[in-house]
Amino acid sequence: MSRYISENIKIQLALESxxxxxxxxxxxxxxxxxxxxxxxxxxxxxxxxxxxxxxxxISLKEDEINSFDNLLLLCPExxxxxxxxxxxxxxxxxxxxxxxxxxxxxxxxxxxxxxxIYKYNIHKKASSKFNNSKFINISSHVYNPNI
Length: 147
What we know:
The protein folds into 2 domains: about 1-85, no CATH class; about 105-145, no CATH class. It contains 6 helices and 2 strands; from the N terminus they run αβαβαααα. It has helices at about 5-15, 60-65, 75-85, 90-95, 105-120, 120-125, and strands at about 40-45, 70-75. The longest helix has 14 residues, at about 105-120. Residues about 125-145 have low confidence and may be disordered.
C-alpha cells in the first residue's frame, strides 16, 4: 500500500482548512501568511497501518486510506497530541472534525463546540496544567440544538 497523497487532495485539504488546524479547539495556522511556509501536517483518521494510532479497529481499502475523507490537516502540535493519545482522540472524534459546521455562523459553531466537549468529556480530560481561564467557560453555556 502506498502513502502517496495526490496533489489534488492536498490542495483540497488546504482550501478546506481556511489556514487553520482541523482541531476545532486549536487556532494555530497551518501556513505562515508572510513566507507561505506550510507548517501543517496531514494526518490519517483511520491509520495507514494497523500498527498506527487508532489501528486495529477499522480497515480501509487502499484507495480510501489516502482519500480526502480520511485525512485531516493539523498543526504539528495537534498531530503529535492526537497520535500520542488515540484513546482520547478516537476515530469518531476525528471524523466529526471533518464536518463543515466550522463554517457556520458563530452561534451554531458555539453550540456544536459545546456539544462536542460534553459528548466526549473533553472538559474533564483536559490536563490540569492548563489554567482554566484560557478555556471557554462552558459550565455557564446552555446547549440549545435548535439555534
